[in-house]
Amino acid sequence: MTDDIAIPIVDTGLGNSSYLVDLGDGRALAVDACLDLRGMRADSERRGLRVAFAADTHLHADFLSGSVQLAASDGACVLASASGRRDFDHVGLGDQDEVDLGGLLLRALTTPGHTDEHLAYLLLDGDRAVGVFTGGSLIVGSAARTDLVAAERAEELARAQYRSLHRLAALPDEVLVWPTHGAGSFCSAGAVRAGAVSTIGAERAANPLLDAPDEDAFVAMLLGSLGSFPSYFLRVGEENRRGPQVLPSRLRMTLMDPAEVRAACAGGGQIIDVRPAASFAEAHPRGALSIPLRPAFASWLGWLAPHDRPLVVLREPEQDPDEVLWQAAKIDYRNIVGELGGGIGSWVAAGLPTESLSLVQATPTNDMRVLDIRQRAEFQAGHVPGAVHIELGDIHVRLDELNKSGQTPTVIMCGHGERAMSAASLLARAGFSDLRVLKGGPEDWVKANGQTLETYG
User: Fold this and answer.
1) What is the per-residue pLDDT for 412?
2) Alpha carbon distances (Å) from 207 to 166, 190, 219, 374, 375
3) Could you read off the pLDDT of 349-379 as tens digits, one per residue?
4) Among this protein's residues, is 34 annotated catalytic?
């Protein structure tokens, strides 16, 4: 049996990995499969595999599990923690329970911390421990956050996470570490090293949390590294406990004419403009929310767009509607009611109101407010001197802070421009004017203005 037995299926947008394990007889084990099964389907079909077992390490907050979908489509046996109280058919496992996969053995290890019912799964080939699926316990260079179950329980669960990490660190050095959460995941605490997989020995040697001198130091380090997270995280875990709805293999959007879209908006709906930032800047329906379609689309949809009101998509003809719909579905956004037929051209032709925004290159200036909407860790690592910092996810609740200085000309920046355009669309809807979006990042701005990035933290 080779050590590359677990095939990672990486979701770069969420910063996560699912895994597909070839059991050697045409069957496979899927670990932490996402409801968007397109990548796993492609890999399993290419290898001629049928998913016979679908294991979840925990009740995920950042995506809907694909296990129920795999049970419905492939007849997969769902494996999960017995203490998770899931409302659907599954084999409930406790500490040291084992599942015979037919030549390979899967052993459950209770590893609470990220969630109460968290399990890691040790994969054994005979007596040899090949690797461990660590989910949101031990990850590459860090661990997963402990404040998602309830903010007031973050310290309690961090202490549980300390014990779980040290339990896993006691495994042999050569055991492979297959985590679910990775670089870019909002479920991760602190900096995560690049690379989807690691080994127990490498983590024992280089993971700062395992280097903490005692439990109190570990807790302080983990809790001190926590950043913000998308608001949809607060409800998806419960949806996973109940069991996600089984979806058809093909999702579709209804074509809507401009009058229908306008009526939907008048009734409380929202246009989600997924076109590139430059297209949105040139012209967009008044009040539209810009969330450019890219790997991170799901995270920002779940952070910025309403979950309980109709959403209408505006896209470019070459943008894949499947990508829009599956990214939305995997975070439990089933409120997309259609798309604007004919794109922005049909809206303009119907004489409906449009707006535009300035997308600008960095130029020398000293008369403009700079609004940096990146995450706290990004801002601390280097920002424009004097920049106002409000994370994109907080814009809607911190408008008063920007209003204090009136309608000051404002340049909004992130790393490349996509998040900044989302922020500009939110501010424009709130009545702000004279907004400009930087095409680039803080480094471009300070270079143009003869400045040096400030850092702190």
Assistant:
1) 97
2) 11, 11, 14, 26, 23
3) 999 999 999 999 998 887 889 999 999 999 9
4) no
Helices H / strands E in the chain, number of each: 15, 27
pLDDT score recorded for residue 131: 98
pLDDT band at 111 (very low <50, low <70, confident <90, very high): very high
Burial-class residue 261 by CB neighbours within 10 Å (0-12, 13-18, 19+).
buried
User: What is the band of 173 on the pLDDT scale with cuts at 50, 70, 90?
Assistant: very high
Check if 6-242 and 255-355 are the same fold: no
| Interior angle at CA 244, CA 242 and CA 246, nearest 5 | 135
For the chain, which residues make up each domain, given as ranges? 6-242, 255-355, 358-448
Q: 40 with 76: CB under 8 angstroms?
A: no
- CATH code given to domain 358-448: 3.40.250.10
Spatial CA neighbour of 158 closest among 224, 225, 223: 223
Which two structure tokens, joined as six digits, stand for 402? 């920007």
Q: Which two tokens stand for residue 214?
A: 């005692």
What are residue 239's phi and psi, to 5 degrees?
-60, -40
* SS3 at position 270: strand
Model's pTM, two decimal places? 0.95
Which tokens sit at 290? Answer: 């810009």
Average pLDDT over the chain, rounded to an integer? 95
∠ CA 374-377-383, rounded to 5° = 60
pLDDT confidence band for 1 (50 / 70 / 90)? very low
222 has a pLDDT exceeding 90: yes
* Cβ–Cβ under 8 Å, residues 413 and 445: yes
Instruction: Give the integer Cα–Cα distance in Å for 386 and 448.
Output: 15
Q: In what order do the strands lie in the sheet with 388-389?
A: 358-360, 435-438, 410-413, 369-372, 388-389
Instruction: Specify the CATH superfamily of domain 255-355.
Output: Rhodanese-like domain (3.40.250.10)
Superfamily (CATH H level) for 6-242: Ribonuclease Z/Hydroxyacylglutathione hydrolase-like (3.60.15.10)
Catalytic residue among 34, 187, 265, 414, which?
414
